[in-house]
């Protein structure tokens, strides 16, 4: 069973979850109203942010600091180191490309990490009226209702969430390797799904909608909230090598304990991790 780190023992996590969830709830109107906003800030490769991303991060971040006294590390503006002390980790719009073209699969992601370990997570999909919260070792809720812990199930009967990729891309996990993995999974899993939102994939694992999910992102803002939710629901969250996920991990694999083990076997057989000797990056 995953528990919170000892350094979080004196933190009132239920209170912080309530405060943070209320802050996210207060900006739902702005999120919904901005659907279809075009990219306004170019980032690495073909990635971009919208004016709504920037506005939401400023608004949420300021209120979190004011009401909790804890710093915020966000996708757009950075902040304190994401792996030291208590820190909020925020992605104001996960699935920005979806959001910019009017596809409603886009989420607000917020986690509290203590010394690099996610201890609570919130994922809101305002355009779908879906809302997931969790405290590791304590509770997991869907739309405000407490849910049962994840039941073990085989990969052969599961839907698996897969991250977006370009087969021509390079990097730590090249597109050809990801394609090989997804090809292998297509023969082992019941169905594969590519939502375009890592946070959505992981929330759906926690809720038992997806049996498991794989993310090749190393960004804490993509993975921290989902890791907390999956663990809160009784699932497992590691990197592609089976090491427990923490801030700085270079990938994320989630599922119930049985399915997660099967996923790791397929990942190893596919060779996608290869000679993965590049040091994991911590979002700074």
Automatic annotation (TrEMBL):
EC number, UniProt record: 3.1.3.25
Keyword terms: Hydrolase, Magnesium, Metal-binding
Matches recorded under Pfam families: Inositol_P
Gene3D superfamilies assigned: 3.40.190.80, Fructose-1,6-Bisphosphatase, subunit A, domain 1 (3.30.540.10)
Coiled-coil residues: none
Catalytic activity line of the entry: a myo-inositol phosphate + H2O = myo-inositol + phosphate
UniProt keyword annotation of Ion transport present: no
Name of the protein: inositol-phosphate phosphatase
